[in-house]
Task: structure prediction
Amino acid sequence: MISYIGKRLLAIVPIILFAILITFVLIHVSPVDPAEAYLTAAHIHPTEELLAEKRHEFGLDQPLLVQYWHTVVKMAQLDFGLSFMTNEPVWEDVVSKMPATVQLAVSSILFGMLVSIPLGFLSAIYKNSVIDYFSRGLSYFGASIPQFWLGYLLMFFFAVKLDLLPVEGKGSWDNLVLPTLTLSLALIAIYTRLLRASVLEQLQESYVIYAKTRGIKQRIIMLKHVLKIAISPVITGLGMNFGKLLTGTIIVEQVFSWPGFGRYFVDAIFNRDIPVIQCYVFLAACLFIICNLIVDLIQLYMDPRISLKGRTDQ
Amino acid sequence: MIRTTKKTLLSIAAMIFLVSTVLMACAKQEASPSASNGTADNAAVAAEKAITLSWPRDIGTMNPHTYNPSQLFAQSMIYEPLVSYKAGGKLEPMLAESWTISEDGKEYTFKLRQNVKFSDGTSFNAAIVKKNFDSVMKNSNLHSWLGVINVLDKTEAIDEYTFKMTLKQAYYPAIQDLAVVRPVRFLGEAGFPDDGDTSKGIKKPVGTGPWLLAEYKKDEYAVFTRNPNYWGESPKIDKITVKIIPDPETRVLAFEKGELDLIYGEGVISMDAFQQLRESGKYTTQLSEPVATRSLLLNTTNDKLSDLRVRLALQSGFNKQAMVEGITLGLEEKADTILSKNFPYTDIDVQPVAYNTDQAAAYLDEAGWKLPAGKAVREKDGQALELELIFDKTDPIQKAMAETMQAEWSAIGVKLNITGLELTTQIERRKAGNYDLDFWSNYGAPYDPHSFINVVAEKGWGVAEANAGLPMKQELDQQIHEVLSSTDETKRQQLYSSILLTLQEQSAIVPISYIKKTVVFQNKVTDFAFPANRDENPFEGINISQ
Result:
């Protein structure tokens, strides 16, 4: 197991190097000069002298290979330079903003699970019942509505009209409710349908029929056996979504003035804050790989039929 | 009931513990500074006069000598200038009680106000003024955009309350330049870093202004309270909370819910939202005087646009009034002059170019651009009258205006190609002169009109480059250099009139509309007035009815 994890962790290296290369190439083929972007973002008039000074400071006057090597070495030390916008070390900015994003991602995942597991399960058991129609309707709604629009709608009804919750900010637990609802609805839409399909599939399996013939109670079969297996695709999805939430709560953070990493990244894009963009790509790559690894390990733990080399026919 | 094994129970418990730990670690509970959340703790708090407003960006490091990320309005709450810019371009004493200018226009001697203290109680005097100037001049290349920095030779603290500034050459807008928000305002001794170089950061924001930064959470909020050591008339309200809300629609919803008392600024909410709030009748809305002119730069180095008749045809070939009303919902005002008349030296008589498509067609015919039978685009010597207008693709007003002009000019036989660019690329292309038409706007008070004429003469900003094809460009540059160094008020007015008239007649900078600031506030807010200085805060005199 340890060597498996070690191998998986080692595999991160080439992927990260590739991600850095892609960002590096994109920045160099972009028509915008990073030195000019820096001065524009800092509201300083870019005279030729200043541009030359900044190009030298950023190492842009060195050969491309040297620049790439320096970028890799610095990133390995988590040194992403100073943000063009805040003039603070990017990594420090990210570390200070990440907790807010993690909080939002975790609460959304938890709420999403809390709703979608029972809903998906019940809508499979009571197929074509009221609860099934309700879950289908909710999934359809959750999958189709744009998140920023849903955010505004929730804000309008629950904060402005009903005056139950604050509109924006991160002052108290109340502030967490609306962004969590906004983010989790899309998760609920996916997981409910995924779980429903998976449970229905399991119900056709011979082990269920066999268990029934052995006289095991329906409830026990469902909760102890079917759910445990049927939840597997949901966990896979969860891993992917956690990475996505950590790097992609951008719009929701913007709408709810949530001071997380996503909002920082939106500003970076608009202002061509290249050190932040590079850090984002690096982090996104790392997060997705780590989330995938964790999901694989959970799957392994939950389903012993999955071997370290892949599924076997045990 | 489900029969759970010990192992499963342990796993669940571990999971719950892990999740709770993460959540607890992440959620550092802090009391929100919001007026609505802060349920009156006691009677004193209830009686406190406080307003909450929003700003799109974090207020920044509040370093008076650097630019981004510090926000101008907030810097102006903490730091004060020697001279203050008031309505109509009037310069009034602020930290300097009076000043004298030598006859050759090179020496400026300021008598400083004597009873001024920084917010930490230390005294404001000539030594700290000099220390601030020294720190700024250490990085003068960062501030080259500000004329006075370029001509500053030396500064001296003559005595405790006399400060002298010597210029390399006469430069009349020096006093006006000292009214800007950065980098020429004053940080107290306790704010300076050990090496005295503020370009890398300050220890804390200590100023002489009416406000001090009492509480701050980056990217969330900033709370300003009255400076107890303020030398002037103390503000009428006790506390101003600035909430950072990046999204304009969220700002509007927070305002409607009552979480905000005021939304102020340029383009801080959409024009639709402003109209909707105005029409609701529930709030007070106001528009400022023009703060700048939205214009079109016509690149005169381009063969087609080097012909005055073509430029005049373009200016008279689109309905400015209808376009401004349609796109800005009347929140911007049609502009007939390149600079609005509320700046110094700009109240001159000019003949506006009227909307007249027949006249536009006649100009083009006269210039040799004829419309061949069966074709929609005019031609001359086998070449089509095709032009490119570049615009900032993230600016919805520029985009809508570009599309309108495309339609309007096609009716007079001009093919306009419109290209949306990122702002940095737009600026790069402007500076390189690599375009036919581009949007541009002047700087506003207290920078204009001298900053405007300066960029008409000096290369590096894109405007001088665009005007390079004007036949009288050399003469124009000569006049501009003359006016900037002139010590004679009457002569300055004459020169300004001549420069602005020439530019107006040449139609190389086509005024479209006057940009205005908007404000919307709850009815309890009273005595709101827009600052004369475009970058300053509007909290002077503001009050609330309890």
